[in-house]
Specification:
single chain; 343 residues
Length: 343
């Protein structure tokens, strides 16, 4: 090889940006700046949510023999994590109304995803059901099987009322969140959402460690009355036709999530607490009347919801817990992109 060719080869080798597997200094700086912006765009909600996805992915890896579809769930967790991080960063980088709305309201979709996934994960660690413990607890506490005893009051009108009460679960967090969001009370809004995700994650963890299927399945042989009704009964049936979660009954996540919203209303909108309270009480009763839960599930939900709200309020006191406003990160986000472009 001639000296000229050697020189050209050397220059080409030096100009290759991936030589030796290392990134150029400018690009490393750009990536570091971008990563910093992504981290700063997250708040306490993401700390808990992404932590849950990471830990559950680790469990899926460790116990993959119990779940053939474990690789799919791990991939889903990775995809959801990327989407969450991208949304957080984008809403901080570009202060558009649509992004800001999505940034604040995606937690609702996250809760739904995690709950529906429990249908597949409930036997990830333990393969059996532990309903016998809760059946014994209820009977020891009340002297009867509550769902069976309540059959004597079953009437189409009452059945439909109870199903309506059960459906109110879907409104507590949405209504409170909408009021706080509309009023621009960002810290209050994220305190309620963060408390909710903490409570839910605690419930998910318990459901994985203590699989319970609910009296709808375990006590079916004792039930003699079908809970027929009208519009709300049919609506529940329609919703459940898309996939009723079998398992994850303890603690009652309906009670858990609703209690967090109820406590949030007491903390931030006292008048709304008094509006919620009677619906909440009937909703708690409906979970047993409708055979979705044991009394033990309801009590467990009250404990988990209370602890979740307590922990959420304290976590939100930490620096960076409330997501940074778009205007605070716009300059940093622009700098990261400029550094990347120049590299």
């Amino acid at each position: 090889m001639s000296p000229m060719n050697e020189t050209l080869t050397s220059e080409v080798a030096i100009s290759v940006p991936w030589k030796g597997g290392a990134l150029p200094r400018e690009r490393r700086a750009a990536l570091a700046a971008l990563a910093s912006e992504v981290v700063r765009s997250c708040g306490a909600f993401e700390w808990v949510a992404l932590g849950y996805l990471s830990v559950s992915s680790l469990l899926l890896t460790l116990f993959r023999r119990n779940l053939p579809s474990a690789p799919l769930h791990i991939a889903l967790h990775g995809g959801v994590s990327v989407l969450v991080l991208a949304l957080c960063w984008a809403s901080a980088r570009w202060p558009a109304a649509g992004l800001r709305f999505a940034r604040h309201w995606y937690p609702q979709a996250f809760f739904l995803f995690c709950f529906e996934e429990l249908h597949y994960l409930v036997h990830l660690i333990f393969l059996g059901w532990y309903d016998r413990w809760l059946i014994a607890f209820d009977h020891g506490l009340l002297g009867v099987h509550p769902t069976v005893w309540l059959e004597q009051f079953a009437r189409p009108a009452l059945n439909d009322f109870m199903q309506m009460a059960y459906l109110t679960y879907f409104f507590y967090l949405v209504v409170l969140g909408a009021i706080l969001y509309a009023r621009g009370e960002r810290r209050a809004y994220w305190t309620v959402m963060t408390s909710s995700v903490i409570a839910y994650v605690m419930g998910y963890a318990i459901a994985l460690a203590f699989p319970v299927e609910s009296p709808y399945y375990s006590l079916a042989h004792l039930q003699r009355v079908e809970l027929t009704g009208g519009f709300f009964t049919q609506l529940i049936g329609f919703i459940e036709s898309f996939g009723r979660v079998h398992g994850a009954a303890f603690p009652s996540l309906h009670v858990t999530g609703s209690l967090v919203a109820l406590l949030g209303a007491w903390r931030y909108r006292r008048w709304l607490f008094w509006v919620f309270l009677p619906f909440f009480l009937w909703m708690a009763v409906s979970t047993v009347y409708g055979r979705y839960h044991y009394v033990a599930d309801v009590l467990g939900g009250l404990v988990v919801g209370s602890v979740g709200f307590w922990l959420g309020e304290r976590l939100m006191q930490r620096a960076g817990a409330c997501p940074a406003a778009a205007r605070d990160q716009e300059s940093g986000g622009r700098r990261a992109i400029q550094l990347w472009a120049r590299s």
